Amino acid sequence: MADEPQGDVHRSSALDPEQLGFMCGIEVHQQLATGKLHSRESGELYDITIDTLPDDWPRFERRLRASRGEGGAVDVAARFESKRNRTFVYAQSPNAGLIELDEQPPLALDEDAVDITLTVAALLNSKPVSLIQTMRKTVVDGSNTSGFQRTSLLATDGVLETEGGSVGIDVVCLEEDSARKLDTVDVAHGQQVTYNLDRLGLPLIEIATSPDVVSPDHAQITAMALGRVLRRTRRVRRGLGSIRQDLNVSIGAGDRVEIKGCQDLAWIPQIIRLEMARQLHFYRLANDLRKASELPPLPPHRDLDDETVELRVAGVVAKHLPLDLHDVSALFGNTQSGMIAEGLAARSVMMALPLKGMLGHLGTKVHDESGAQLPRLGRELAGAAKLAGVKGIFHADELPAYGITDAEVQTVRKHLDLGQADGFVLCCAPEWQARLALEATLNRARLAWHRIPQEVRNVVIKKGAPEDGTTSPMRPLPGRSRMYPETDVPPLAMTATQWERVLGNLPMSDGERSERLSTYSMSTDQSEQLLARELDDLFCEHAADLPPKAWAALLLNHDTESAQTLANILTLREDGALARDHVDGVVEAHRGRVVGLEELRAYCSNHDLAPADIGGLEEVIQGIVNERLAFVKERGMGAMGPLMGVVMQAAGGADGKEVSALLRAAIQAVLE
Q: Taking burial as the number of CB atoms within 10 A of a residue's CB, which of 435, 458, 560, 594 is the most buried?
């Protein structure tokens, strides 16, 4: 018999994962540094928003609907999305063609993307499949023009060694990335969502671990270890949004929830702890509600659930909380609430839903020890309603507030004929939308008597960063019905020769890379920075012909879009054709271009960028020292700084390092 879960929801940091039956796995999605997976379009991403969207980009409008999977059933998540009355506008970026618009069949899998994915699979000790079968995964939120995402399983049954223990790797897949959402606006009878197609079709590696993560901190360690494996290939994209982590989290008294939006690894422990607290809170709330309804208690672990009992409870709750919607707009005809008055003036309605016996169970905004919002049913109900597109709801436990007066609350209660223990929910929106939102609210309220629903949730983001680590619902957790074979992409056989070639060409480990850099004469800091910024391969490619310290500095200080150009510039400096002080200017003048050695030599010659003649430079320096002999004798070597500026001004174009050496020698000669 499972133990009753222990812990204080107000202190999520003190919750015991082992006692609570904690389970966690991680899914990592990493963009690859290649072209698109099935169209051979470039992988360029465009830095645009809805306000800067170019007028000359074609736009196409679509409406998607759910289709049946291979087994003949419509996936639960797809069914939910199809009710949201949304249309989709797609902005066709320069790297989006007919395949991205779903007007042409896809091409076979990109060979480079397959090779990178197999390399990652080998680094994770995974076993390759014998046949790569591309599948369609139903997606009807508009992020894929076709209504599905193409995904291919490449390897299974791997293992990742971490500081917290071994973590199994269930699958390594190669799939398409989705389109980027730019905007969502309300229109008559629904919403219109605008997407940019630049990201659609970029190849992603998806790695899903087994539920072997033992704690919130271990989840962060595991995510970091997976990131290191991916970066070891030196063939994945870097930067914000190029890698995304999804967390599959549950406790024994709860159920599996998939949390998306965990881009900042530092937030992972906090996000998981708050989800543990949320599941614990709703387990206890379910039993409070069951006790009040004289229903059997919920067992302390989901494995002990009795389907017959749960069906009986669901039947009782459905009768207890019927769908009973009331248009109460007339009760707010003289409201002082600006947002409600504005909504009613725009032909919205105020719709009310009674919630029998739920007053006091919906909750008000309270924070835990770390400042995060504590879980409460009212917030879950609002999250369910927002999926219909409304901005929010008002519920009895938080009223009067938002300009709604106590008199208006009492009028609503009287109109709905509520008892002292009864609650209610209000929604101000166009009638069709208010009804859809309150239906979603009612369904979520009924689930309060049960274990938390399996669902996909999203980290609450404000101003580009997590608000406090809490999450909001996105959609039901998808089932098996969403997957079926892609008939336009032929299966790809995996041969033993191909796998042996992958195993024979694995990238170096971080230790091996560090050892390689240690053979070059440069500072430890430079070596560490080259590794951290993944520039060591570029460095070693040219280091044999260039001074290592100067070459490392040039790579670290400048855009490496054209390493060959940087190497040519440094070569000219070493050959005496380019003064040291002019290097940065030449780099800037040729940024983003591959420029040959002779073209650069001509540029330096035409712009007189060679170092000053050293013989003439010695005379200039000696003359300046002689003119300021008393100053030099008084200040000694301290005269170096003031005189450097004078010499550099007098000998324009001179190399600063050479000036320093000659000036030092001239001053020392005076002082001897």
A: 435
